[in-house]
What we know:
By secondary structure, the chain is of the alpha/beta class.
Amino acid sequence: MSNRVIMAAGNWKMNKTPREAVEFVNDLKDRVANSNSEVVVGVPFVCIPGVVEAAKGSNIKVAAQNCHWEPSGAYTGEVSCSMLKELGVDYVIIGHSERREYFAETDEMVNKKARAILDNGMIPIICCGESLTQREQGVTKEHVRYQIKIALLGITAEEASKIVIAYEPIWAIGTGKTATTEQAEEVCGIIRELVEELYSKDVAEKIRILYGGSVKPENAKELFAMPNIDGGLVGGASLKSDSFEKIANHDA
């Protein structure tokens, strides 16, 4: 059994106003106070100040859902890592398939963001995953290995051991379809093997790999019990405190 701490990370996407976000976190605090998971809420930029304040003194950590890799400059509408760090952000989700699809994010951009996040003392949650076509054509392994190899370019072993990787099969995000526990475990195992190949067995043992894609209270316990799955990046079910509580405490 590894000593990696299970992470229950909610990705709220473009949901909840600042007021709703604070109310949610205030409600969630007591529910997860005794959780043996690391509880993280990935909130919209405008919600970060209020949520950080509301989460103070609790075991809830705060993630941003994106960032820019440059420290400052003429990037209208973007947010830098130093801005996020100053607000008290712990983690930054990068490379989510929705960012890749709707905003044309590339693996190289994900790598630049990872570098900037680490340089600012935060931890990236790097997303990867294949489309339905890629799975049907049998290229899941090659595709995911490629995404992670590029994302980790120039990142040291010490830095890599702190990073979180989230495997999200695109065909299972918001579709209600979930990869079987065996499918999810297989790809998380492939990612861990790659990390060992790139760095060492020690780094591969330390790095946390989450599964994302229709994680619900009903399947969380079984998924999180897998040897290579260290928690979940949770979408829809993280927007309701009762379902997210069950996932964080992994009891259906």
